[in-house]
Structures are given as C-alpha cells and as structure tokens.
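[09:14] KT: can someone run the structure on this one? pasting the chain below
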Amino acid sequence: MRPLRRALLLSLILSGARAEPRAPLPDPVPAPGLAALPGGGWRLLFGREEERPSPEQRLTLMEIGNILAAYTQGRVTLWAEVALGEDVSETRRLALRRALAVREALVLGGLPETRVDLRPLGRTAARRDVVDILPPGVPRP
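[09:31] RB: done, structure tokens below
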C-alpha cells in the first residue's frame, strides 16, 4: 500500500474512533408519574393494575419519541417490571403489555419501531411497577 494511502486510511480510522461527548437530551414536558433517571432516560410509573399510560403520559411519551428520533442514533431499550403477582407468566405478560403501550406512544412521536428493544422482566426483586426508557448508550440504573 502506498504511504499516502496508508496515512489517509489511518487518519480516517483515527478520526472515526474518537468518542464525541454525549450531549444531554432536551427535557420533555413533565407528566405525573414520569421521572428523569439520574444517568439519562426516563421512568414511567404504573398503577398496580394499569396496562397503559394515561393520556397525559402518552402525550409526553410521544414527545420523548420525537426527542429520541431527532437527537439519538441506535437502539432504545424499554425495561418493564411488575411489582406483584405469583404467576411468572402472568407478570411477564403484563410487563410486555406495558412495554408495548410505551413503544406505541414513542413510535407515534416519530421514533422508528425498529429502534426499540423490549425487555419485559415481569416481577423483579425491586418490586416496582415501571417501564424504564433508556436511550442508546445509557446503562440500566
């Protein structure tokens, strides 16, 4: 390989390898039961038997979908948990229904459905009724 081509290739590789600092995402309009997570992302709280976000929460989720579509690249992960229930299958299904409802609102806001990964955990040791929305690169709290 010619020295000039090698130098050009090396400079392209090195310039692409630099990590850009992650800019904070814009804050969406607040909604009851929706909180920002300390390391990034959002946590949506559900009532014990609720399967879907409230209309006010849904509008904020649509705004979050718009923010994620405009300011991020990569996959968004939804971690869904259920506080109570003895039947493992039932709690996983409830967690899945909640995650699907959140994904639906994010997609209506403009986030491509193919960029959303669902993690319906069911009942966990933390015993929370939540769906965590984690942008690309944000670790689970």
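[09:33] KT: thanks! Residues 9 and 15 are 10 Å apart (CA to CA).
[09:34] RB: yep, looked fine to me
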